[in-house]
Design a protein that fits this description.
Low-confidence stretches: none
Helix content: 55-70%
Number of helices: 5
Radius of gyration: 29 Å
Structural class: mainly alpha
CATH architecture of the domain at 1-72: 3-Layer(aba) Sandwich
Shape: elongated
Mean pLDDT: 90
Order of helices and strands: HHEEHHH
Strand content: under 5%
CATH class of the domain at 1-72: Alpha Beta
Largest sheet: 2 strands, antiparallel
Distance between the termini: 73 Å
CATH superfamily of the domain at 1-72: Glutaredoxin
CATH topology of the domain at 1-72: Glutaredoxin
Strand order of the largest sheet: 1-2
Number of strands: 2
Oligomer: single chain
């Protein structure tokens, strides 16, 4: 049986409005890096200029259901008829910007995303270091308590209990 991804590509091979493709990121490193692929397998969807992470199920039925509902033309400068009034207003605002202003605005947003990712990684590293220290502290405490006579104390307690039971 074909993997779910291959089945989905087969199901959409003749589509005029949706593309389902497989990219080998060990070969297409620049493309994958540009689109924020950090782990494998990663599934992206949406406008090629603004791909989004897919977070649904990985079986064929889940992928097919998502694709049926979400792949194809979507709101954008080339499909204004598919946009809400708010989306149309955003498109108009950005369309009026000069190329330089648009590049600057994009750069600011991308920098914000990169900053969020960097902060996340840094904080996870701190959490990992804290976890490792807590684990080490716990193990040391257990070792100290056990070597401080706990076992002998328990043996004496049990021995006394046995003697009382014998009386």
């Amino acid at each position: 049986m074909k993997p779910a991804w291959d089945q989905l590509m087969e199901a959409f091979k003749d589509s005029k409005t949706a593309v389902v493709a497989d990219v080998d990121c060990t070969v297409e490193k620049d493309l994958c890096s540009k689109n924020g692929v950090r782990g494998y397998p990663t599934i992206k969807h949406g406008d090629p200029a603004d791909l989004q992470d897919y977070k649904g199920g990985r079986d064929f039925d889940s992928l097919k259901s998502f694709a049926d509902e979400n792949l194809g033309p979507s709101c954008g400068p080339d499909n204004l008829d598919l946009c809400s009034d708010a989306q149309k207003a955003d498109i108009a605002k950005y369309t009026e910007m000069s190329d330089d202003d648009l590049k600057k605005a994009i750069k600011e947003k991308e920098d914000a995303l990169e900053g969020a990712e960097a902060t996340f990684k840094s904080e996870v590293e701190k959490l990992q270091a804290t976890y490792e220290q807590l684990q080490k502290d716990k193990e040391n405490t257990i070792k100290e308590v056990k070597s401080s006579g706990l076992g002998t104390m328990k043996q004496i307690k049990n021995s006394r209990a046995k003697k009382k039971d014998e009386l």
